[in-house]
Write a structure and sequence with these properties.
Shape: globular
Strand content: 25-35%
Structural class: alpha+beta
Number of domains: 1
Number of strands: 7
Largest sheet: 5 strands, mixed
CATH topology: Trna Endonuclease, Chain: A, domain 1
Order of helices and strands: HHEEEEHEEHE
CATH class: Alpha Beta
Number of helices: 4
Helix content: 25-40%
CATH architecture: 3-Layer(aba) Sandwich
């Protein structure tokens, strides 16, 4: 007869957990779901890291001074992925790596403007918040207008599709998206 004593209940819980863990390990090639999730997270982070480094090298080849901000976790700090300077202009980039489309949430765009507003002592005409999508071998850049941020009218998401054209034209800094 089944009684709900804490010892018996604990034993059943342990047996069920071991059974389900063995079953999950068998269906994922000997790795537990937790291990598979960790591997997928590492791959996802490496993609972003790779795109950020590619953008820095691209900017440097085009005559910009650029650095990647090494923040590996989402934070509330107003830090962009990449900062670049060309002459007297400063660019704060949010970078996404995708195959066909990339979404930039409002919170990440807001962080770009907060960074530029709070930490860069220049006129607004010299500060640029740019979202950059690395879509295969193609880069698409869109600058977000200061007036949208000032009026608190940032869109919930900015979407860049592979077929889109960017709205950023740099002289020698970055090739124009076509």
């Amino acid at each position: 007869m089944y009684t709900k004593t804490s010892t018996h209940y604990s034993f059943l819980t342990i047996v069920f957990y071991q059974y389900s863990s063995e079953r999950k390990a068998a269906t994922t090639g000997g790795k537990t779901i937790k291990e598979v999730d960790k591997i997928a997270l590492r791959r996802w982070r490496k993609r972003g890291f790779y795109s950020e480094n590619v953008l820095v090298k691209l900017l440097q080849k085009r005559g910009c001074r650029a650095v990647r901000i090494p923040v590996s976790n989402p934070s509330l700090s107003p830090l962009p992925d990449v900062i670049a300077r060309k002459d007297s202009d400063v660019y704060a980039f949010e970078v996404k790596n995708a195959s066909y489309y990339a979404y930039f949430p409002k919170q990440q765009i807001d962080k770009l403007f907060r960074f530029l507003n709070e930490l860069i002592p220049l006129a607004r005409e010299q500060k640029h918040a740019v979202v950059a999508a690395h879509l295969g071998k193609r880069w698409i850049f869109k600058e977000i207008d200061w007036s949208e941020w000032e009026k608190d009218r940032l869109p919930e998401k900015v979407r860049i599709l592979k077929r889109d054209r960017g709205n950023v034209v740099f002289e020698d800094a970055i090739p124009v998206s076509k």
